[in-house]
Each structure stands twice: as C-alpha cells, then as structure tokens.
Amino acid sequence: MSRGIQRNGAGNLQNGENDDICPVCKSSRYLNPNMRFLVNPECYHKMCESCVDRIFSSGPAPCPVAGCARTLRKQRFRKQTFEDIKIEQEVDIRRRVAQVFNKQEEDFETLRAYNNYLEEMEVTTFNLLEGIDVAATERKLAAYAAQNAPSISQNNAKANRDRNAQNATTAAQKEQALLNRSAANRSSIASLAEREESRRETLDAFPRAQMSSPQDDAAAQKVVLKKSTARRTAAERARDKQQQQQQHIHDPPSEAETFRIEGLKAVVDAPVAKAYDAFGGMSFTPSYYTLQSHYEHPWLEKARTEPSIVAGGYDLREYHQRTMLEAFAGLGCFIEEEVGEKELSSGDGMIATEGAALAAGGEGAEDVL
Question: What pTM did the predictor assign?
C-alpha cells in the first residue's frame, strides 16, 4: 500500500508540474518563479507571457498548441482566474449568454413563459459548453442579439443603474457609519475633557468654598449646564446636516419598451396607495338631515350657560346628534309591509304543520293534538 500511495503522490506531483510548464517553450515555474500564464477565450490554451509577447506582438497568429488552428490576438489574452480551465470557459460563456438573455421575471405575463425563456438560455449555454452545433448556436445567438438589440441595451442600462444605485447606497451607508463613529468619538472626547475641566474647577474652588455663597454656586452650575447644552446642540446640528447631505434620491428615467417578445406583459403604472380606512368605505354622514352646529331653544340656551351641566365637559353637539338620529331613525321602515310578511310566513308554517298532521293520519294524531 505504501508503494501505491507513493505512485499516486508521484502522479499528482507530475500533474501539478505539467500545470506549471508552458506547452510552447517548455519553461517551468520551478526555474522561473515570476512566470505568468495567460489564456485566450478563443481556445483557452494556456501559455506563458513571454511566448505571448514573442508570437503575437506583430499581429494575429495561429495558436502554437498542436492541434489548434484558431487565430489569436494579443489583446484578448488575460490572466486565468480559476484553476480549472473548464470552469474558466463556462464562466465566460455564461457571462456572454447572460448579456443577451437579460430579461427578468417581471417582464413576462406568466411564470411558464419566463421558465421557457430560461430553458432556451440554458440550452444555448449547454450547446456552447459541450460543443453541440456550435456554429448553428452561434448564428442563432447572433440573430437574437441583433433582433433584440434595443431591449437588450435597455435591460443592460437598467441593470447598470440598479448596480450603481446599490453601490452608491452601500457607500453612503458606510460613510454615514464612519461619520457617526467619528461624531461619537468626538462627543466622548469632549465629554471627558469637560469632566476633567469640571474636576479641576472643583479642586480650584475648594479652598474658597467657605467664602462662596449659594448664589455663586447656582451661577457656576448654570454655566456648566449651558456649555453642555450648547455642545449637544452643535453635535445634533452637525449630524442632521450630514444626514441631509447623504440623502440623495435619484428616480430612474422611464423608458418605453421598443421590442416585445412572446409572454411579455405590458408595463402599467403602479396604483396609487389609498389611505387606510378602518370602516371599509362605510359613510356615517346622515342622508335625511344636515346636522347644524347651533339650534335655538330655551332649554338649550340654559344648558349652554348652566355650570352644573358644562362643568364636566359635556358638549351639546352630542345631544344634537343623538336627538336628530332618534328623530329620523324610523324613516325608511314600513311596519305594515313587515307585519304582512310576518303573517305570511307564520301562515305557511301553520299550513305545513297541518299537512304533517294529516299525513300522520289516524286517531293517534288526534290524541297527540
């Protein structure tokens, strides 16, 4: 088992060494620790920076790796981000496809339409990753990008605005937190300084405490309170000013949609939120009368000036409202119709009772009755 472990370890070491060797010039990172490897998104073949400068400085040239005949350009070489080149290729392809398929769920009328859109996006990405009908997939992707160029640019601009707004909000929050900490530190330092100054003043005033009067002590305490209040007011004013400077609300400009595909929903303005009504829109305004604020009556005049009535806070407008409500409460109620309906319903009940008794039949029914 020890030999097997050694063989496996040697194999892993050999694979690691191969990763650090340029496939073109065979230079090793072991001999040149400062060597940098670059990749090109056209074929993702790794080579050292010296080979890139030597081969592609004069212009485009074919890839020097055996079996690859793609034409490469120097400006497209970049440093490899991920250790696995497959992950590097997948990230680049997904980023390129996502720049074209950049619609969101709120742009579609139904969830099924949005899922179909995502499925088409994933099929395109899978074909490019696995090399399935690459030429046809590239032509389809280019045609879709050309057909949907206005909406794609609008969605990219919206995504950039949202990203910038989020970054600005995060930066503003960090700056505000820093300002708050600075203000708190300054306030703490000022409080400590004032406490030290108060202690020194107390020690200085202790020898002449026997000769001071209560009026002098009160005046000294008033001066200390004024200083403390002035410092707190200045700190609050500075904090409010900083908060006002940090509050910048930018409303994104509205843009009309220039291209619509299947399943997209129309853009509508958000409804204006109404004020909350605890009674659900029910109106308590009387429909048969209009309540007045003043009524002429001798008893009412006496009640307005009688101390025993108004001393407890009684308001005659409550009496006006209750009296008018009771006076008009019977309007719209027709007693004759209600009585007729009641008699009709009771008559039907008696008929049903008699029918049940007849259905029972016999002397037993008469005995029961």
Answer: 0.44
